[in-house]
Design a protein that fits this description.
alpha/beta, Rossmann fold
């Protein structure tokens, strides 16, 4: 299918080659984990920042999930970009890990139980990383991110487990612009073969199970918990995405907005699913995660009088702000 062909070349076209000649201050290690709930062993790459070995405090963690037919080598491609951000100080030091998963598994627990990627990543894999590396156990400093299929998987896990992850940054996620499977149209799934969906959601497709794993439906059903958790959400897609994934991204953005869940959203003008836009877009997503660790500074005190005046005006209104929850 189209999805397979696109993701086979996604790394080549990310334009990370521009940075390929840079010297690395970071260290890239390889590891593996045995498991009885997914095909084993699960191999992964992990990127450790300069100063890792001498550090006394644990580092924040980013689980970065690759696309549909990618693997852990995505982190090798991402490394020069991350090194550059660390070197110029625009990204705080953190540990980044990318596991190789079954092709087009959606990072899901399959309906038939044959593979349980979501359970594996949220539980034993996360526990393994914390046991083997200097990684914080603080959920507020535990992030998940990904691209395409990885964007979909990162959203689903963060929205299901907002007490496990402090932030999610999803790029061009493969989500559909509907709440229920019966509303899925051919234009929403033309790039996915029926057998790929059936492997994950059952044969025939279990519509209740599909909805339970649909990010938009998860938001609608879980909004209160997501809001109260303080989960930080970053969502983006190119407006020329060849798979038309901007429709799903926009739908999810509107669902987050309607459920009063604060988030950052970018519909990137002129950006496609592949190509030269990906490196700067990945940079922005990583910087968002950095801002979760090191938020914007407070507004200068010279503006206090202005804010007091604004607060007085708002106090006279009968209506509440959009984000106010009764």
């Amino acid at each position: 299918m189209i999805e397979h062909s696109l993701h086979c070349v996604v790394l080549v076209l990310c334009t990370f080659t521009v940075l390929a000649g840079a010297a690395h201050a970071s260290e890239l290690r390889e590891g593996e984990v045995e498991s009885d709930i997914v095909p084993s062993p699960v191999r992964y790459n992990i990127l450790l920042p300069d100063g890792y070995d001498s550090a006394e405090e644990p580092f924040p963690l980013v689980l970065f999930l690759h696309g549909g037919t990618g693997d852990r080598s995505h982190l090798t491609m991402l490394r020069p970009l991350v090194d550059e951000l660390w070197e110029d100080g625009s990204l705080p030091k953190m540990v980044i890990a990318t596991p190789s998963v079954t092709k087009r598994c959606f990072y899901m627990d399959f309906r038939d139980g044959s593979e349980k990627w979501e359970t594996f990543l949220v539980r034993p894999f996360l526990a393994h990383l914390r046991n083997e590396y200097k990684i914080t156990s603080d959920p507020k400093k535990t992030f998940i991110s990904g691209i395409s299929m990885g964007g979909q998987g990162s959203l689903r896990m963060a929205l299901k487990y907002p007490d496990t992850f402090g932030a999610v940054a999803a790029l061009e996620p493969g989500v559909m612009p509907v709440f229920k499977f019966k509303d899925v149209r051919p234009k929403h799934r033309f790039y996915r073969a029926e057998n790929v969906l059936e492997r994950a959601f059952g044969t025939p497709i279990d519509e209740v199970y599909w909805e339970a794993n649909n990010p938009a439906a998860i938001v609608a059903a879980n909004a209160g918990k997501i809001r109260s958790s303080g989960l930080e959400v970053y969502l983006e897609c190119g407006d020329e995405d060849t798979l038309w994934l901007y429709e799903g991204a926009e739908f999810l953005h509107q669902t987050l907005w309607e459920n009063k869940i604060r988030h950052e959203y970018h519909l990137v003008r002129g950006a496609d699913h592949l190509g030269p836009s990906l490196a700067p877009r990945l940079t922005e997503a990583l910087k968002f995660l950095g801002r979760v660790l090191e938020p914007w500074g407070k507004v200068d005190l010279q503006f206090d009088a202005v804010f007091r005046q604004v607060d007085e005006l708002k106090a006279q209104l009968e209506e509440k702000d959009h984000y106010s929850v009764d």
